[in-house]
Amino acid sequence: MNRRVLVFAAHPDDEILGMGGTIARHTDAGDAVRICCVTDGSSTQYAGNLEILRQKQGEARKAAETLGVSDYVHLDLPDMRLDTLPHVDVNRVVERQIAEFQPDTVYCVQADVNLDHQAVFRSVAVATRPVPRQVVRRVLTYAPTSSTEWTPAPQTWWQPNWFVDITGTLDRKLEAFRHYRSEWRDWPHPRNDRALRVHAEHWGTVVGYDAAEPFVLIRNVEAG
Amino acid sequence: MNRRVLVFAAHPDDEILGMGGTIARHTDAGDAVRICCVTDGSSTQYAGNLEILRQKQGEARKAAETLGVSDYVHLDLPDMRLDTLPHVDVNRVVERQIAEFQPDTVYCVQADVNLDHQAVFRSVAVATRPVPRQVVRRVLTYAPTSSTEWTPAPQTWWQPNWFVDITGTLDRKLEAFRHYRSEWRDWPHPRNDRALRVHAEHWGTVVGYDAAEPFVLIRNVEAG
Amino acid sequence: MNRRVLVFAAHPDDEILGMGGTIARHTDAGDAVRICCVTDGSSTQYAGNLEILRQKQGEARKAAETLGVSDYVHLDLPDMRLDTLPHVDVNRVVERQIAEFQPDTVYCVQADVNLDHQAVFRSVAVATRPVPRQVVRRVLTYAPTSSTEWTPAPQTWWQPNWFVDITGTLDRKLEAFRHYRSEWRDWPHPRNDRALRVHAEHWGTVVGYDAAEPFVLIRNVEAG
Amino acid sequence: MNRRVLVFAAHPDDEILGMGGTIARHTDAGDAVRICCVTDGSSTQYAGNLEILRQKQGEARKAAETLGVSDYVHLDLPDMRLDTLPHVDVNRVVERQIAEFQPDTVYCVQADVNLDHQAVFRSVAVATRPVPRQVVRRVLTYAPTSSTEWTPAPQTWWQPNWFVDITGTLDRKLEAFRHYRSEWRDWPHPRNDRALRVHAEHWGTVVGYDAAEPFVLIRNVEAG
Amino acid sequence: MNRRVLVFAAHPDDEILGMGGTIARHTDAGDAVRICCVTDGSSTQYAGNLEILRQKQGEARKAAETLGVSDYVHLDLPDMRLDTLPHVDVNRVVERQIAEFQPDTVYCVQADVNLDHQAVFRSVAVATRPVPRQVVRRVLTYAPTSSTEWTPAPQTWWQPNWFVDITGTLDRKLEAFRHYRSEWRDWPHPRNDRALRVHAEHWGTVVGYDAAEPFVLIRNVEAG
Amino acid sequence: MNRRVLVFAAHPDDEILGMGGTIARHTDAGDAVRICCVTDGSSTQYAGNLEILRQKQGEARKAAETLGVSDYVHLDLPDMRLDTLPHVDVNRVVERQIAEFQPDTVYCVQADVNLDHQAVFRSVAVATRPVPRQVVRRVLTYAPTSSTEWTPAPQTWWQPNWFVDITGTLDRKLEAFRHYRSEWRDWPHPRNDRALRVHAEHWGTVVGYDAAEPFVLIRNVEAG
């Protein structure tokens, strides 16, 4: 039975860095996949620069297509400033996505050192509460590299308990990230081809495969 | 020696769902009890609807009276939006309640998946700091059902260490909640007669009684 | 695709109290299920009493059959004394079970206040390490009532993140436990018909179903 | 209503270092207090030296009497070697104490870097499980200085949530410890008059009193 | 090799209460030390009172000079209201300090019950992320007394793993705090000469010295 | 000033897998380094096989020499069976090493899923308690690959807060491990050349270097 998978990112590239290989596995399996990027991704760093805005949105779409995802929703909440919005306003957009797409599986960016990530996770936590008739049965967080690993150690709850073998899709993940020219940084920064491969191979050795991506399971409900 | 008990709720019904039976025990014992509901309880969900506002406030008072509490203070901070208020403004109303009522025991809603609950707890934590001559000697959190149990597992610190036998007051708790028509939801939602009974009996079996309510002790100071 | 499910218990009845409804779901689904009880279940409490030993083993088999499980392996490590055995000796029996049965899914009793439970979990943790070609892909812990809930709050890591709807199998769970006459205790003890029903209904309301069982996911690996 | 208080120590002096002032408060209040020291306190450090054994037991009794406790039970499990005993054997002695003394309140040494402390706590956790008709309603751990504070930071769960004002009994605590000549160490070691006073005053400032002792509440059950 | 040390405080006196003795050790060792106080320290408590503002800033400078620090930067973000500022605005001032001063070591006030402390820590966590060529190699948090110890026990991550012997500088710490007349409170409040001495001596006994200050290491990177 | 560094391993190869690059940095810096392997490393897996025993000890010495360490102490406690020894017996050998070598810095294998690792750590924790005149000022744990990463997620406290750039010594770490023919496993197992390089590069990207090793700081005391 095919899954309906909704991936929440705070910024374009979160979803590739954290789970590009897993997204490709879902599309390969025939699952319906939507990626929803909650912020505009550039308004704070490049205020008023429509050029950059368009460039980044184009990169995001191309990256998604490389992974087989055409359903890419790019919302326009202000990047790096979700903490300035009322929580209910972030809830509203997250809830609308869930109401529209009716996913059974939700992936959300890890609530890490980045406050936008925390805000998106808080709203996903609200929107996926297991009330009767909740359509979402499984919630997982993924770790966008160059963020989750930089969370202060005594505060983090990132201890992965879910792993996906991406041996067969790692190359597509790397290809997808190559579209993100604006986010590319030279090795040994985590955002480049070499670092993404090393990251996948590292997590691969952790679970006995050539390449893997790690996740934290938040909740899984097996319906009757 | 009788206690002076101040119960902080974020929304009307928090205190019944979480500790209705314990409130009745306090009033039965002759303790002075005040319930303080920090938000108006409806302004976000039913914006501008004075009818609903009055209905909910009426429900809250009747529920409190059922438990023997006539000292019910209903403040008007905006429900579901405490995160938009400066922390000092929430502190101020909490501190005023403590200054006025002079409680030795404070119960606060658990800082769970609901951001209003987190805001109220943060302010209670500030207002009850154990400075010299602090009147508050004991702080506990209670878990309003349909909220605390829906907190993401890796983030929660809800591990109850305090339990109250409510065998003798469970019926009054259920009766009190029946006043909350606006909050009632059909089983298997946690907000109805059957679910509240199951909840109390479950926690009862945990500690060897017919019915119980769970709490987390934040701090207790035994004065000389 | 059918699963191969291996359930590790320390004592007869652990598996019914903690996950009887889920076991029945697995057998209903056509999954291959083995239950392995690691200790003899009575040698410490009823030393030298072969009568009791046979009675309890008979109860265990009947309970398992009620859930559709005929593959019940009863080992004879000394009950309440696993802490006196070398860790490698417990590892050996656990590893042999896994080597023989080749499960993809392992359920283990939660490492709670009971030291036998801790010992079994420690060995399951070793035996299911995700080395290359590890057959076990998923490890979960279940909470036998009258044990996990009695773990000291500041030490426990029991925060369930996995839930199974057992609406359709709760009756069979209760029927299975009725075979355990030697373990039955009167309400409000957790080991009787009424308490097991309350427990299941409580966890049901937590996730929006009539009845459920809670688990902690230790590790899940999605193979390519 | 007077309490029945049972204090478990692993070694003579644990109870003075950790809660001497609180013990004196209990006896002042007319509570029935028993101290039970689980190990002989010297067999490993001073093997075969009966002289030392008698000296330490004498010190322990005099210290207890200074605090108003004549009911001092000195068991003879091997000190520094509780990890070599079967868990059930430690359980047995702890359970017998509880059966005999029928305490409503139990204090246990914190499960810290000292393995004997962990063993005693494990058995207290078992013996005080909240089964129906459990007489023990409250379980707290105390921190013997020169042990709990030396636990590796990432492993400890020592975060005190319970404090007792010992302004009126600190002098008696110091007097009691003076009997422990064999355990006295020069400042800045924690086991001497000056260090014990500093410790009490430090915890006093934490909660607004001249002197205090910290505890962790494990469980409190308020009966109906 | 001398260090470049940047100390972030939220309010004037945080740095003295938490690490005055350690600051003096750094200046004694010839390290370059800057203290940066992020808020004006009085605008909320004494709104519009320029007199107080100047008094407190004068106290802060004199206290710093007593410890050998002339590089005291007093920013003017609103005290007790950092939660009302966009996170990026706090980031900006923290990042500017780091860019200007080029520290290898950063001390930050602990993210405790005080929300301003949490806000400063969040921004320090962002500004010190270990990207390639990050100048900051070591990040520690310190605990300003009358704040960190009052954090609700179940929420705090204050478990010190780093200690500094301040036997030789304790007197200067006390002298420095004497300049803070506006913050002085009578014993047993933690903000006075006696309490600061007790605090230092308490932590001294924890690690075997006459006086010490505790810290939590957030991250240390040993460069090649 | 040169350091005196004592590295505790439970089994030969722990120290190379976890911190081979850091050991080489210490010897390059002129620090005195001793490696102490607490178990014989083969008696359980290869009982009675003296050949293997000698082979493994030879491998260990050659590996150590490759890193510049000639002071390699190989004790003979039984491998995979430290849980069967009295805690005081493991303490004794650890304490003797510290008394003899007088290290200021101790590295210990992480207390992870391997019970021998837990036993060694427990004894190191006892032997390095910060009593007055304790010579050990710094204690860190390292993570031997193919062990620490396989610890059940909800139990582990492995959250590294200390990182060492091993760009300059990675090649020597790999060369050292090549001596361990008996422990080599094919990729994607973590014990081979490729996996060790991936591991080091992964942790390198986490902190901005080409290669790094991660640690957890247990305690650091800066003496006056």
TrEMBL record, chains A, B, C, D, E, F:
The keyword Cytoplasm does not apply. Keywords: Zinc. Signal peptide: none annotated. It holds the Pfam family PIG-L. This is PIG-L family deacetylase. It comes from the Bacteria.
